[in-house]
Specification:
The chain is mainly β and 157 residues long. The chain contains one helix and eight strands.
Length: 157
């Protein structure tokens, strides 16, 4: 099952909607993230913890024929529910996250910072789906993008 999800992740790009703050232009972007689960930092049975996913992402913005590359880190926060205090909480859960990335592309180089909410298996760093908002600053423009995102780490067992 996991292998099928990884192949689907690579063959079916995520669709991102971006809006340039600089020139008020809206665009669509196709992206394919390659994700590696970097491990977890657990703070205790009832305290939650952090999930670290490294990612490299290739993007294609078709109206400007711009190819971009991002390299970054997504940090997910898994927070146990009060009902889970007597036993270890379930693997599948909602996780808020933040991310930071450097980017380079035909339409400028710079940084991206973002965040959102993901649902998935925290122990393996799998975001079955997530709502993501990114703020991107390049030498050429500032933009915001939104996406329904999938992250299946290549090293998921």
């Amino acid at each position: 099952m996991v292998g099928t999800l990884i192949v689907a992740e690579l063959l079916i790009p995520d669709l991102r909607f971006e809006r340039s703050i600089t020139d008020a232009e809206s665009r669509t972007v196709f992206s394919v993230p390659l994700v590696w689960h970097g491990g977890n930092l657990e703070l205790g049975k009832t305290s939650g913890g952090f999930v670290f996913n490294h990612f490299a992402e290739v993007q294609y913005q078709h109206s400007q024929r711009a190819v971009r590359g991002l390299l970054g880190e997504r940090i997910l926060f898994h927070i146990p529910r009060a009902s889970d205090a007597d036993h270890y909480w379930p693997q599948d859960t909602w996780m808020p996250f933040v991310e930071v990335a450097g980017l380079v592309g035909r339409d400028g180089s710079g940084v991206a910072v973002g965040g959102g909410l993901a649902y998935g298996d925290w122990q393996h760093g799998v975001s079955l789906f997530g709502l993501v908002v990114r703020y991107v600053i390049t030498g050429d423009e500032r933009r915001v993008d939104f996406a329904l995102d999938f992250q299946i780490p290549l090293n998921t067992d």
